[in-house]
Amino acid sequence: MRYVIIRDDDTNALTPVECLERLYRPFLDRGLPVNLATIPAVTTDARMANGQPEGFLFNKNGEQRPTLPIGTNGELINYLRSNPGFHIVQHGCHHDFLEFDSNARADLAQRLDDGTTLLLEAGLPRPQTFVAPYDRLYRTALEEVARRFSILSTGWFELGRLPFTWWPRYAVKKLLHSPHWRIGDTLLLTHPGCLLSCHRTLSTMLGGILHYLESQQLTVLVTHWWEYFRDHQPDEPFISFLHETAHYLANHPDIKVISFADLLDKKIALN
Description:
nine-stranded mixed beta sheet, 11 strands
């Protein structure tokens, strides 16, 4: 059996409900869980490396508050709570640029704890999985995340950025060519880049997805909801491809779409 986790990044207080509904109704109707990496209190002036505003702010509409807790969008919270096929993952705290690429332990711990508190105060379940903005964490951040979460989902690990006590386990991971590994009680998952992206052609997306589904026991498919609605217009071919992906995953008996939480119930053992 091959397993797939759908990870959609950047849900926040400015995310329109209709965007998530348009993208993921075919998944939900088929019983395919969708993991939403959710920003607890989004920075409304969040910027990319090139200084441009983050794409997930396209619905800002002149909002002046510097941060917006997820709980300020009651319509979104009600929608998420009424659709149990959505699973909430903590995505940083504010999604400041490279927010967890730091060794400032007190600040990191505060951001992790504040983020969890904001999700809980909004009425969402306690997150068991963490995703850092840009998938970037330095060793102190990795230690603090591992103390609080059962799963870390990220793009890659580098020896020089790991806590020194993790090095032996990392060496074993590299020796075994394993994309996923464990430190203590925390499962560390990698993904093969953002395979579902507006920056790829449809053919390369398909080829990449099929390659990893065939070569890995567990594949984390990462995408970003706002990429499907650039310039306030739905990208119909891209949306259709996402829906075709749902059809493909649902109709292959040797593939099972799971949530991050499904990995914690001991029923799924990774090789």
